[in-house]
């Protein structure tokens, strides 16, 4: 497909520009809509309202009954250890029905210092909701393995209610409510293991997808999303952090230089994905504000989005706003009258319900929209006041066309958008020296893709 149209858009010079907010998308909000807020499609709001704090509570409490879910714990008991937890999660996914295709993906992890001291089978429970119109995939995951104070102790009791039964429960509950939906794109709901030993399960999933050439256009891990209460009792129950990397640190130095060289350090695919999640999931349907953190992860910590970034996929991490370290990675004990350990009693199931809604709203929008534009470049052949962008127009029956977005270089999020139509290039009369540009796809159904940042053409 080749579009020859070039659009020359006459926009006032930058000096004269103000930066009004993007107009809100006009979702259907006719009679019968319970929620009449911008950015909240009616069907989505109805499905999200089915996400149940009671079911989340039941999943988390069940997951705390296996004594431990340490990756190196037993796999031969129906009631104790990670093998029993694996089989229970699988049977729950199987019960969701709809179009979910559920399987256990197992591989033999050899000894690997410092945290795998003997060969061990690591299993991911993977539920796939196939899309009807595209090979695009979006993944959400939580990890079902646990750890106690000593990361190498597979025998001591540990409940792992917040870290990360909360994330597993969120992902399972989203899978359940979406199981009967049909989207253009494919969704994967994963419960992975080996996280505490070194992100092994997620790495295996990411590498398997990469080896199969799967076009994963977004991945989110929900890890430690169980509570919003800090150790001093401060609560922040209506926000969730989303950690998103800047410069693509795990890609080649040439790719890193391409971003850094044009002030693109805030415009990696992971950052675009995070902006997208914040824009479609901070609303009345989720009851949450997504707070992007410009960082791969918290200091000294790692998470299951990292292996997806390493595989070259955009990925980010949801985590509660305030962590309480007495209830993470701690043996269950009372010391000086203080309870330590990762127990379900410290979880806020309605908070996890809202985090589940954030995941569901993000997936709903991603899976309904066209894919992120590919091979987007900005013309840097000659000096000029205009900015010309080029991309590959997708073959997609749902594709209505494209929008150019921009913002001042110091602004965190897009401030302006212009419709350019079903074309594969557009020229804007606004200097690329002064703003950050992006391109996104718009579906005939009104849903929009994440933004792609144009790298220099030469
Ligand atoms: C891994 O699982 C296979 C199949 O169940 C089993 O035969 C093998 O003994 C397991 N390996 C280890 C190290 O547990
Ligand atoms: C698009 O980008 C991919 C990945 O960088 C590259 O392999 C491919 O050749 C590009 N296609 C075109 C038509 O430029
Ligand atoms: C570039 O823009 C400036 C400011 O609007 C204008 O003075 C100048 O003539 C333009 N140059 C070209 C080559 O269009
Ligand atoms: Zn964790």
From TrEMBL:
InterPro entries: M28_fam, Peptidase_M28
Sorted UniProt keywords: Hydrolase, Metal-binding, Metalloprotease, Protease, Signal, Zinc
One Pfam family of this chain: Peptidase_M28
Catalytic EC class: hydrolase
Record-annotated Peptidase M28 domain positions: 124-331
Enzyme Commission code(s) on record: 3.4.-.-
SUPFAM superfamilies named among the record's database cross-references: Zn-dependent exopeptidases
Gene3D superfamilies in the record: Zn peptidases
Signal peptide: 1-16
Cofactor(s) in the UniProt record: Zn(2+)
Listed PANTHER family: METALLOPEPTIDASE M28 FAMILY MEMBER, PEPTIDASE M28 DOMAIN-CONTAINING PROTEIN
Protein name: Peptide hydrolase
Species per Swiss-Prot/TrEMBL record: Pyronema omphalodes (strain CBS 100304) (Pyronema confluens)
Species lineage: Eukaryota, Fungi, Dikarya, Ascomycota, Pezizomycotina
């Amino acid at each position: 497909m080749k579009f020859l149209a070039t659009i020359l858009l006459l926009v006032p010079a930058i000096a004269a520009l103000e930066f009004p907010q993007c107009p809100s998308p006009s979702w259907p909000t006719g009679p019968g809509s319970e929620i009449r807020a911008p950015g909240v499609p009616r069907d989505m709001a109805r499905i999200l309202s089915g996400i149940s704090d009671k079911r989340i509570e039941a999943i988390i409490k069940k997951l705390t009954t296996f004594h431990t879910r340490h990756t190196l714990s037993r796999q031969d008991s129906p009631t104790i250890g990670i093998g029993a937890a694996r089989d229970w999660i699988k049977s729950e996914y199987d019960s969701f029905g709809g179009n979910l295709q559920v399987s256990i993906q197992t591989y033999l992890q050899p000894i690997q210092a410092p945290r795998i001291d003997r060969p061990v089978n690591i299993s991911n429970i993977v539920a796939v909701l196939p899309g009807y119109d595209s090979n695009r995939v979006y993944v959400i995951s939580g990890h079902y393995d646990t750890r106690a104070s000593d990361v190498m102790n597979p025998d001591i009791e540990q409940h792992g209610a917040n870290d990360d039964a909360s994330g597993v429960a969120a992902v399972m509950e989203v899978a359940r409510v979406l199981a009967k939906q049909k989207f253009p794109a494919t969704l994967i709901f994963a419960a992975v293991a080996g996280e505490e030993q070194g992100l092994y399960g997620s790495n295996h999933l990411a590498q398997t997808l990469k080896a199969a050439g799967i076009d994963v256009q977004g991945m989110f891990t929900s890890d430690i999303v169980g509570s919003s209460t800090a150790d001093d009792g401060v609560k922040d129950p209506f926000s969730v952090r989303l950690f998103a990397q800047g410069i693509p640190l795990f890609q080649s130095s040439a790719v890193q230089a391409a971003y850094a060289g044009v002030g693109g350090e805030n415009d990696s695919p992971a950052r675009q994905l995070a902006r997208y999640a914040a824009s479609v999931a901070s609303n009345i349907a989720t009851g949450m504000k997504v707070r992007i953190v410009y960082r791969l992860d918290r200091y000294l910590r790692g998470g299951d989005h990292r292996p997806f970034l390493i595989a070259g996929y955009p990925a980010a991490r949801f985590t509660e706003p305030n962590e309480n370290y007495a209830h993470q990675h701690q043996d269950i004990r009372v010391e000086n009258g203080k309870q330590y350990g990762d127990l379900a009693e410290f979880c806020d199931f309605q908070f996890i319900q809202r985090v589940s809604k954030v995941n569901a709203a993000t997936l709903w929008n991603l899976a309904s929209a066209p894919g992120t534009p590919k091979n987007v470049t900005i013309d840097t052949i000659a000096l000029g006041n205009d900015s010309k962008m080029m991309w590959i127009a997708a073959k997609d029956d749902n594709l209505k066309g494209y929008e150019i977005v921009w913002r001042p270089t110091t602004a965190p999020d897009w401030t302006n958008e212009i419709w350019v139509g079903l074309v594969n290039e557009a020229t804007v009369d606004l200097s690329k020296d002064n703003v950050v540009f992006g391109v996104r796809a718009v579906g005939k159904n009104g849903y929009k893709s994440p933004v792609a940042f144009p790298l220099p053409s030469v």
